[in-house]
Amino acid sequence: MRSAVPVLQLTVAQAEHFHDLGVNTPLSLRLLPGECTLIEASEARQLTAFADLCSGLITLHSGNVRFVGRDWSDVPHDYAAALRSRIGRVFATGGWLPFLDVETNILLPQLHHTRRGREELRREAQGLAREFGLPGLPLGRVDALAPADLGRAGLVRAFLGEPLLVLLEDPIRGLLAPIAPAVLNRAAITQDRGGAVVWLARSGSARLDPSFAANQRLHLGGEGLVMARRQAA
Question: Which CATH code for domain 8-227?
């Protein structure tokens, strides 16, 4: 029996500063184990800021954001870092430590916050890499990898270690569109084992994925989070 505790819950959460959210309106969202929410916004920076908000990285003026029942504002720094190790995230841009090789970038969160050995994690990461169209786990520096391959590597990092929450910022944009079925399948696997997924997309791009089954389809804009309008086929 799955827990009734939401994986992610925003309760009239309002950022202390305007930031890049593009809204100054309280936001509310409830995401239970096994659920997926699709959120569209006009600008990529809004998607990144919303993912930051879900991860407890934006200071709030009012309201709260809870991950598996824990209020980000109430937990110690070290505990918050450990909680974030249970969140997988695909960044629209950046998100890599340039002084580390790609493999270490992928494995580091799990190596730091779990007791699993490097070889065990490498085997799991290699399997994910093949799912997303890579011949194996990428080697070398971040800046030496082609953009499409770096995007695939970002998906490996996001789904490694069976995260409780996965935040996907436009995960199949541009050159990554051909691997949409693999991303959708991995998202479904996450939901089947009781995790939750927030799929963040630029407005209009979600029509490329008619098979995507989301429990909620929302738009992030001036009025906050509102039900998204269905697009014509």
Answer: 3.40.50.300
